[in-house]
Amino acid sequence: MVSLRSSGPLAVGGPLTMHLGGAESNVAIGLARLGHRVAWVGRVSDDELGEFVLRHLRAEGVDTSGVRRDPDRPAGLMFLERRTEDVTRVQYHRAGSAGSALSVDDLRGPLAAGPRLLHLTGITPALSDAAHQAATWAAREAVASGTAVSLDVNYRARLWSREDARATLTPLAGYASVVIASADELDLVAEPGADEATAVAALLDRGVRTVLVKLGADGARAYTRDGVTHAPAVPVTAVDTVGAGDAFTAGYLSGQLDGLALVDRLHRAVTLGAFAVAGHGDWEGLPRRDELSLINGSAAGTTLR
Amino acid sequence: MVSLRSSGPLAVGGPLTMHLGGAESNVAIGLARLGHRVAWVGRVSDDELGEFVLRHLRAEGVDTSGVRRDPDRPAGLMFLERRTEDVTRVQYHRAGSAGSALSVDDLRGPLAAGPRLLHLTGITPALSDAAHQAATWAAREAVASGTAVSLDVNYRARLWSREDARATLTPLAGYASVVIASADELDLVAEPGADEATAVAALLDRGVRTVLVKLGADGARAYTRDGVTHAPAVPVTAVDTVGAGDAFTAGYLSGQLDGLALVDRLHRAVTLGAFAVAGHGDWEGLPRRDELSLINGSAAGTTLR
Amino acid sequence: MVSLRSSGPLAVGGPLTMHLGGAESNVAIGLARLGHRVAWVGRVSDDELGEFVLRHLRAEGVDTSGVRRDPDRPAGLMFLERRTEDVTRVQYHRAGSAGSALSVDDLRGPLAAGPRLLHLTGITPALSDAAHQAATWAAREAVASGTAVSLDVNYRARLWSREDARATLTPLAGYASVVIASADELDLVAEPGADEATAVAALLDRGVRTVLVKLGADGARAYTRDGVTHAPAVPVTAVDTVGAGDAFTAGYLSGQLDGLALVDRLHRAVTLGAFAVAGHGDWEGLPRRDELSLINGSAAGTTLR
Amino acid sequence: MVSLRSSGPLAVGGPLTMHLGGAESNVAIGLARLGHRVAWVGRVSDDELGEFVLRHLRAEGVDTSGVRRDPDRPAGLMFLERRTEDVTRVQYHRAGSAGSALSVDDLRGPLAAGPRLLHLTGITPALSDAAHQAATWAAREAVASGTAVSLDVNYRARLWSREDARATLTPLAGYASVVIASADELDLVAEPGADEATAVAALLDRGVRTVLVKLGADGARAYTRDGVTHAPAVPVTAVDTVGAGDAFTAGYLSGQLDGLALVDRLHRAVTLGAFAVAGHGDWEGLPRRDELSLINGSAAGTTLR
Amino acid sequence: MVSLRSSGPLAVGGPLTMHLGGAESNVAIGLARLGHRVAWVGRVSDDELGEFVLRHLRAEGVDTSGVRRDPDRPAGLMFLERRTEDVTRVQYHRAGSAGSALSVDDLRGPLAAGPRLLHLTGITPALSDAAHQAATWAAREAVASGTAVSLDVNYRARLWSREDARATLTPLAGYASVVIASADELDLVAEPGADEATAVAALLDRGVRTVLVKLGADGARAYTRDGVTHAPAVPVTAVDTVGAGDAFTAGYLSGQLDGLALVDRLHRAVTLGAFAVAGHGDWEGLPRRDELSLINGSAAGTTLR
Amino acid sequence: MVSLRSSGPLAVGGPLTMHLGGAESNVAIGLARLGHRVAWVGRVSDDELGEFVLRHLRAEGVDTSGVRRDPDRPAGLMFLERRTEDVTRVQYHRAGSAGSALSVDDLRGPLAAGPRLLHLTGITPALSDAAHQAATWAAREAVASGTAVSLDVNYRARLWSREDARATLTPLAGYASVVIASADELDLVAEPGADEATAVAALLDRGVRTVLVKLGADGARAYTRDGVTHAPAVPVTAVDTVGAGDAFTAGYLSGQLDGLALVDRLHRAVTLGAFAVAGHGDWEGLPRRDELSLINGSAAGTTLR
Prior knowledge:
Chain A has a six-stranded mixed sheet, sandwiched between helices. In chain A, strands 2-1-5-6 form a four-stranded mixed sheet, covered by helices on one side. Chain A is globular, with a radius of gyration of 18 Å. In chain A, helix 2 links the parallel strand 3 (43-45) and strand 4. The longest helix of chain A has 17 residues, at 262-278. Chain A is built from nine helices and 13 strands. By secondary structure, the first copy, chain A, is of the alpha/beta class. Chain A folds into two domains: 1-22 and 41-99, UDP-N-acetylmuramoyl-L-alanine:D-glutamate ligase, CATH 3.40.1190; 23-40 and 100-288, Ribokinase (UDP-N-acetylmuramoyl-L-alanine:D-glutamate ligase). Chain A has helices at residues 23-33, 48-59, 104-112, 124-127, 129-144, 162-173, 196-205, 244-257, 262-278, and strands at residues 2-6, 16-20, 43-45, 68-70, 77-82, 87-93, 117-121, 148-152, 178-182, 210-214, 220-224, 227-231, 302-304. Chains in contact: A-B, A-C, A-E, A-F, B-C, B-D, B-E, C-D, C-F, D-E, D-F, E-F. The interface between B and D is medium-sized, with 20 and 19 residues.
């Protein structure tokens, strides 16, 4: 998806900057920067905007060999407007886009390669029936072949209602070993109105191994059958919160792939979240492995010479 | 429609500038800058991009009171890529846009106000069946109530085939007193493959009073029952050819509204075309009435102090 | 007036951005964005900079039909320099400008249209004797014909001394039903050195119905014969305080035109002030009516998807 | 003077870039870049814009120790609008500016230093009576003390009429040993309507040693009592003609100060003119002495590695 | 190598844009865009600038798995200054750079992979003794193992003298099956002062199969034992000649890899050269395979809708 | 030195802005802006980048007549990357630069002029043996001829180890009457690991008159034989900490040159530091003398009209 960002009110106009956008690609880049081998799979338009998307994924070292070009559908777009210093509004032009036409066939090859992990978000099934089916098929297939599944709820109010989301995502969560959600998204993978404890318990009961609850400036909680672990956020000067959740997810999954203990996974997760909010762009500021120590709760305003 | 312009290859990225785009709004602005009272009618999205469109029309003094806001559909978009210094590529995201949902009802009120002139382009009917019907209805209604109709063929290969265009535009041309086309568009309002003379003759036979053939750097020809008049292009340094045809049309219609003789209408038409190509943007460089004399075939590289 | 903004020290140079500036036009835009019918009246230069001013007013839906173009005088200019992150300096080039030549005749027509409200600022009378007379004439005429008058003191030290301002504005305040001032401006419409209570009492005694005291980050107080009401500021991340007072005024007057209770007028006033300081530019970030709820004291750093 | 440049129509807005502007400072910089010792004398505002002017002059190595800061008057401004690719419009805000208040006293000290050459333009006397008197006094004083005087006619239609210019500049030319004019300026230092031959003859009769006629793309002619010399323009791709005349003058005067033969002075003059038109800005592209050979009539499109 | 471009004189300052630069990477990108599998081999600094280089190569689909990161040496830099519209100056900061430390060991692995073609330029051996030895070793090794070698002379006066270049490049040319040179570079791979015919004959005698002579706006000549073929340049509006030679080389080699006839290779070569000069940047404007037809000698100023 | 700044991660690319950089030039500009006569001495490359450096120094009124141009060495460069909002990384390209070749001979002339003060930093001796010798020679010579010496430790970890720095700077400090250091730099001019009290005592014992310890947001301490004085930092909104230490030094030295009491020197020092952190750029925001009162601990967010 191409993200078009304005630095002020869209109605007034002004230059837009083009970025690669998308929760899944953010996670993929977060992992690739940390040195993991990662592929992004999906459909992109067979035009210049699609080329733009691929150029960025390749630049970041994400494997795009499984991407399918769609000659008939345009690129998905996202307008990201900084309406005030504190309020960012997102507007999607994704109906009928190449990405929304994702199908089971598009995922067959990449899954057959047998990845260790399949990461899904709640955005894909919101795009179309085909995409919904593809996501569900992939989750089931992954589990069947021993690939772990992670699911970030990523609820987008502009794409569907909470009811539709719940009806779709709750079954999907059943395939996941890791479920990631913000506090107000938890009941989208549980009973309507369920509080955190109830929702988490239900998920763990259904076989989810870890439930991660993102708390923004308050850090995150990780629930397992063994209990709950809390990690405070790493304090930084926040300039752009977009992408922070995806960065968090990438950090957690990176720790999981590295075989870290839960507390260390969580720390990497909040550290990546900190990088995301301390830099401009969805993913541009994410760290390489040797940069992880740049942000560690230490002093603000550092100049390294 | 919102036009998003890149100054280089889209695939490489870089800032996009936002502009008001659209053949009809270009013509409306061209007329308004010359002091004519002009309204633009259509549907725009009920969001920030729609607001952007309206802000620009209002800024230029175009009456937007008849515009309908569509709460359910997104703004139409156009990506305008300068692929090389000589090659500009246009890509539309208009399927399902607010503008494509134009309906007869949207036009009823504005037409009832009894304008002297109704300007249509061949783009509107290409957008959807509803828009096609609306345009045809408006042309018929206008003729019935004594409003003159002008039609610019404006063929867009990205929107429909030549065959479809011809089947739609040829009947529409029958309502027009002025038909404007580039040389290779003429047979879209006549028999397939008709040469210029044949196509023009057929149009005049069907009651069109004036047929204008745009020739780019070679100027333009105007055909009436009295014969043909040629106006050479006004020589300027061309920096951006987008919008030149619309400027030409605005110049001609301005002359007609002012009651000028044919040759003077043509001269104003090519003068406005020259302003359009000598300035950046689709319409930004169009002249106010007191600026018409800035371009008159005189010396290039003038500094007025 | 054209406002030329630098993002750093002017002496070092760098690009300037052009904006429409002026306390009265800020208020007019604030009202128009909220859906009120509003006209801006004044003189603008009959050149490109004057055209720039009119384009922005029209874009915002402000009626400019009563504006007079002055062929002999240049546009007024304001250089706005961000000297440090916290210190913004303003420098005027208004002596001899078109705006400074405002005359009684310029205001005759617009006032004859019988608006519900006439908003004046203390800047206009500072520009020239003619402008002073025009403002006074308009206030008197408005009162005589039943049009309410609001006056924002808006003291500008670069334009005149406190003594001159007091001598002019104190009588002018007598025509107003609403007087708006910051705390340190109150004694410019009262006795020199008068404290807030004394100054307010004197104004209310002279027939002013409401006295609004702007307190910046501390919100505002509204005094009537019934007592005093305080509204705290709406907390936002401030990026640009320029225009906040005008936004406050527009919010208050909007509430008054809507027939809101005093406390609700005040709330709208501080809300508009919050929009102004949370966005860049004097007026660019002001809300449309459906955007008022975006800022309501809730969480910072929100992304709406 | 501060020059504010827009890259498109001013009425549409967009960023302005700040530049040092002014015919005399252009000449001063042209000479300083070539290694000559040169001072610029005048009044500049005692504010940030004045500081901007001085920073640029100092950066270029022009002596500013004789400049007087005026605490009471604003900086002179020039808006430079690229209206179309070929038409640049200039608009002055110089009435009442610091520069327009130039007085005899301002020039006394610098002239007492006994420079080899005093360069004057026809712009200074157009600014005010005081400036007119100062220029005339300086020319007379210079001649009296053996300092050569050069005068560039530099007629500015926005500042005064041809009649006023002629009445002022014709006597001034009598003090000059070098007079520089474009072809259509010649009769501003001679009888009204005088043709080139007549005007030149009259100037030479009055004691002017050299009359330079700037012909733009056709180069230049130099007249002395010994006859006429023509130098063709140096062919370059022109991107910005502003400042070309001043560059020409600087080149000629540099050659004179270096003791070059007339033909070599002319060649340096047209070479500097070529640098000015081949680069953006009034003076930014002017060459240092070791760069003179970069432009010499040779091939376009050269990359030096 | 990181290329830092200014759009005007460096001494005046202004923003620099960062680009991937280097003759070899230009050729690699040209080939990759046309769909060929291509790897770029070299040393890049183990810092952010090195990362920048790799990101661009990967974005373009160039294999970077054989690149070696050098922790001890900085990135090579190139300042590219547009001194006038026609004169571009290049300044290198490559002494001691990572790239200059290229060694035989760095090339061993990549060559062992058995590519069909090894492309070398005359720049690499100019950087250091080690790089010289590495290039020579690679050429010899390639020939020994049946990999064809192409050599672009690419003389850089800022790096070494013509004498040194000749002494190094003449033996190197003996390994090449294709030698590419501009007309004034030919005698750097032949006897000093040799004219084109003599130099070409000597190269063909030494076993070079094809000698390509780049003629800029005049196209190119290709010499083989069978005679000479000339291809005219494809006419386009030139905006940036940097990289044109590398584009030409990429086009030729692409044709060779595709098994095209000589005349068709040459046509592709001049077509890629046309793309390079018609777009900004060294390689940004190079075509994908489906874009080759965008430039074909047809009309300038085309808008494709 | 030329400082190239990116506003985000260097690896992602984007425009770089060119600035004059260097601790000594920052101090020189700080002093010149406050009206002191100051010369900067060093070597700069004899190319466009060197010219850029000199243009900025001259613009700021710093005497550059003693600067030596080096035709054989490139300009020193510094890449300044804003990696996150809080973390700025600096990368030097100074090995082999013109500045690193500073020699005793370069300093002979300027020192012979008998300045009141010689300011040295710990960066110069880190650049090369020659520069080390030059700095030491200059310090000794200054003391011998009655010129006071100030030394700012300015430790740069990218240039040398703490051990090497200590070995060089400790003897150098012996020549200084003022030594400036941040708290963690103090033991670089004392015994390894010495705490603040010990290090300061040792310096005072060796004859240093004043030891200034920079504490960032906590202000600064000044030690003399009479005891210690603390000055809190002046509270401002910090946007760019680069150059703050140099500004502090310039403020202190300015106070010393003005004959202020220690406490007033310190106050000026922290005031200049506040200007540096409240503005963008290393030195661009430093105050002129009449601007010192703009920052005085008063309210943030001030607009001066």
